Amino acid sequence: MSIAIDATAACTPKPTGIGRYTEGLTAALSQRAIRLKIGTRYSHFHHRNHRLQISDSKRFWIQEPIWPLVQGVDVLHVTDARVPRWPLLKKGTPRVATLHDVFHILPEFQNGGKYATEEFTRKKIDRYRQIARECDRIICVSEKTRTDFMNHVDCDPQKVEVVHHGIDSHFLEETRGNDAEILESLGIPQGGVLYVGDVSARKNLKGIVEGYLAADLDQDHPLLLVGESTFGSGELESRIRQAGDRILRIGWQKQEILAAIYRQSRALLFCTHYEGFGLPVLESMACGTPVVISRSGATPEVAGGHGHLCDPADVNSIAAALKSALNSSKEDIRAGRDHARRFTWEHCARETEAVYQRAMEVH
Prior knowledge:
alpha/beta, Rossmann fold, seven-stranded parallel β-sheet, 36% helix, globular
């Protein structure tokens, strides 16, 4: 089987959720009986040194609708919720898109530009509908994403399938003796409460910060924010500064460093407004660190009953769930770790390959 993948999401110096999905899936697919052709949109030429490179695969640039001229490909797959619009020399080549969430089409989050510009929201909604019309198979990364997509977009349910993410091998390692040294060298304290993701309004950072402060933990458990500032972070930055040294900005980290931070933290505080999946939940549990998650979105599905649930709009609920997580038993932590470690990129690749097969059977 020959697969052409638009892997643009991974062409960045600081890959996050979708980029890391693209990296993990593509690497695992390369270990199967698949010939890969890995594409990058020309808009990312300035990041060309970060193009995804997999051994024994060919790389190409994409400039829609001019090139590439696709030949000898059985399936086209775009990993960041787009419709492949490449000139197809072989008409009718099956097209597959991965859909990570439908946040922007949900009525409760269409809040006058609070979470994204209105133009960006409109483009995302148009893209959801294009995917429904034009793709032969749609991979949703959770049952929650699939349900929300089907509830708000007119689409044939037979072509929408669920394939969960995997997690990187760094998060499967046991605690290493040099974790403390790594963190000390970076000025990152041990024993903190952790948040991993964009610092943005969409991620409920206001609720996370206020819930953490309401828990009134001692100074040995600062809130560590691992991630970059994105849309709507201005007000949040001011509140973070007001909290002084109780909240520390860590910035984006490589996966091997992130794994050490998880292992040396007391809990993950990840009560976002909505997640289509939520990789940090699995990563944290796999490292033996309990998680606080929202009752909404896909994180309860991902955590599989091993998360400490809260109402993301209720500061006291967040604080109570955080205290519960900090008092997790060794048995609960072990059960969460065992659950998380069942999510592998190998399993994701195997199920994705099956989706490719079914897309080919349609033509």
